[in-house]
Amino acid sequence: MSETKGKIGVTTENIFPVIKKFLYSDHEIFLRELVANAVDADQKMKALAASGEFKGELGELNVRIVLDEDARTLKVIDNGLGMTAEEVDQYINQIAFSSAGEFLEKYKDQIGNIIGHFGLGFYSAFMVSKKVTIDTLSWKEGAKAVKWTCDGSPEYEMTDSDKSERGTEITLYIDDEDAEFATKGRIQTLLDKYCKFMPVPVIFGKEQEWKDGKYADTDKDNVINGTEPLWTRKPADLKPEDYMEFYRTLYPMQEEPLFYIHLNVDYPFHLTGILYFPKIKDRMEITRNKIQLYCNQMFVTDSVDNIVPDFLTLLHGVIDSPDIPLNVSRSYLQSDANVKKISGYITRKVADRLEEIFKNERESLEKKWDNLKLFIEYGMLSDEKFCERAMKFCLLKNTDGKYFSIDDYRKAIEGAQTDKDKKTVFLYATDPESQYPFIEAAKNKGYDVLLMDCQLDSHFVNMLEMKLENSRFARVDSDTIDNLVPKEDKIKPELGDAEKADLNTIFQSVLPKENQYYVVADNLGENAAPIAITQSEFMRRYREMSSLGGGMNFYGEMPASYNITVNMQNPLVARIMEAKQAEVKPQAAVEDAPKDATEEQKKAATDAKNAAAEEHKADLEAFASRNEILKQITDLALLANGMLKGKDLSDFISRSEKVVADAYLK
Ligand code: ADP
Ligand code: MG
Prior knowledge:
This protein has 21 helices and 22 strands.
């Protein structure tokens, strides 16, 4: 062949500045692109042999990476189909025909928006090279070897090559700024990252062995990839151990996952992959970006956030699809129709798998539930479609450690826990230790109490309440059990306004000052505790949500408020009320000033009224401070709620010792 010189047929002015500029941050992808082309060439060769078009010796198809650190050259060599001079001209020179040209044509108006990786293929070699040569010999009979040389300007040279074996050898003369790519360590790292699962063997140097006090090459090729990664194999041929072992090769330092899903779809898009459910115990442990995205076994990225719904980024594993457009900037991805379909498909598959586990491996699901719960709840809270499906397989755990499906649980409690308005009340505890007395009180009534101790549970409870018709969720300590599940109208204590006010004053005066209290009288039964301290469900939920960051800070900043329910049927309370009756004289009655009174007379009447009220309040407080039963039962209620602290606690202890001594020693 006579020497040819020419200009690369770029449709846009000059592709090289574009390559250098826009791919700046991603220089390393050149290696992935060149290896991908070499792999393609090998696979096309294989196809030619399979179809009978090629009848010669196929040999063992592979890709070799050869680095010369001193000369700063890097070669990518394949024994695939090679190219004739015409093909080099068509595929390499006339960029318009290859993806790079099309790409630039398509996006030339918005080139400024384009970031990240778009497969510029072969031309990405110029990101790191001052000169690139191609030596290639086509498989076609009588083909002549060609050498193509280009020094990074749009000018190229084509001459005869002395290549004698079928295939293509690309040589990069690494430029000074990119010298890192002429080091063994860096190339090994890149091959591990991008080529670990490519479908033909990729060879980089020789395997090493420890000999005479140093590492030396053996004569065995160093193959860096496994050509048949697990996700490309048939699920029927695989055992659970295989999946676990593959997980360990992907994430050597991670704990075993809970479950896995093998994805495999051909229509309307191609996608294979394996996803794993990791153990997630609390929010702090969540690691995202553990899913690796591949395109025909070539690694593309480990950030899949625009491809799968947010909650699925908590999963680990591999997705391989040639149908995810990789050439476009990531912000376009979300609106891509294929990506939407893929995202919907994966969500559905995850739900299918969980439902299947729910049906067939219930015991295993229950065992692993505590580590899976956060993921499922997050999915249910963030993805409406997933939520619909998950209502079937989501489990609820009660304070006895038993698991139920939502439906089963509802059926189990419906009988006892339906209130007078026909609403089923789901009782739950968030801390079985500190809420123990309330849980016991509920159980004594024959009620069941759920455990909701996970970070997302306050949101989850809100969501369930909206989904489940005719139901209500109540934290077990948010009111007395009779009020949480109110039955037919029960008899309330009959107290006059004055008596209610007295009751309030007495208790306020013996309760710690830092909180707010609402004192109410109720009939809880003779054997129930004299006082129950509860916190309103509404207030508490809002405080919790604002602390999780829900923008409801108003509630977060208010002092904590509690309901003090005084059980009027308790004998100790009855005794206090009798003592009050005997010891505190009623508030002195002060007549209103007559209508036609002067301003002065009116003021005198108001003053007298206020004075009477003050005096009565002082009387009540004096009574409260000397009434030991009152102090004692209030402190006991505080103690039961973990609210008795400091001096109050130590006073309580000395008082109690005295009570015990009085009872036993006299
Ligand atoms: P793409 O791979 O998307 O087609 P590239 O720029 O990577 O774009 O490659 C352009 C074309 O050059 C390929 O389609 C192929 O026809 C040819 N080519 C590149 N590398 C090789 C190779 N190693 N062997 C044979 N043909 C190659
Ligand atoms: Mg390519």
